[in-house]
Amino acid sequence: MPKKCVEPECDKRSQGKTDKCISHGGGPRCIESGCVKGARNKSDKCKAHGGGSRCVEDGCAKSARYNSDKCAAHGGGRRCIVDGCPKGAIDKYDTCITHGGGKRCIVSSCEKSARGKTDRCKAHGGGPRCIVDGCSNGSIDKYEKCITHGGGPRCIVDGCPKGAIDKYENCKAHGGGPRCIVDGCQKSARKNRDRCVAHGGGPRCIEEGCTKGAKGNTDRCITHGGGTRCIVDDCKNSAHITSEKCITHGGGPRCIVEGCSKGAQGRTDKCVAHGGGRRCVVNGCQKSSRNQTDKCKAHGGGERCVQIGCTNSAVDNSFKCIAHGGGPRCVASGCTKSAIGKTYKCKAHGGGQRCPNCITWLDSRSGKKQYDGYCATCFKQLFPDDYRSKVLYLHTKEIRVRNTINENFEGFIHDKPLYTGHCDCTMRRRIDHRKLIDATLLCIETDEFAHKRYDPKDEELRYDDLFMVHSGKWIFIRFNPDGKGDMVDKLNRLIEEIHFQIMRIQHSENTELLEVIKLFY
Question: Where exactly are the transmembrane stretches of this chain (predicted)?
Answer without folding.
Answer: none
